[in-house]
Amino acid sequence: MFDENWNLHSDAAITEHFIDRNPDYFGVLLDLLRTGELYVPPKIDKKFLYREGGYYGILDHVRSAECDTFDGNRLRLAKSIMGLLVGDGRLH
């Protein structure tokens, strides 16, 4: 979402950021993050929803929510044990 060369902390007084993106798609993604459920209204094109999900860095969340309810806690837990596999001698 932010260019890697842009200093996000350039002014400590700024606590808000303006994002000039389509609010219809942003609303669908925000509801997904709030409720864990993906509801795509008929006027929303999934191709563009995926594009917006990619822009915000949550495309995997969008795709997984299509199959089941999105669970942010499940993703955080999975991240905390990433790389450990049952049977590799490190996880019992």
UniProtKB/TrEMBL annotation:
Signal peptide: none annotated. One of its GO terms (biological process) is protein homooligomerization. Residues 11-61 form the Potassium channel tetramerisation-type BTB domain. It holds the Pfam family BTB_2. Coiled coil: none annotated. This is Potassium channel tetramerisation-type BTB domain-containing protein. Pathway: Protein modification; protein ubiquitination.
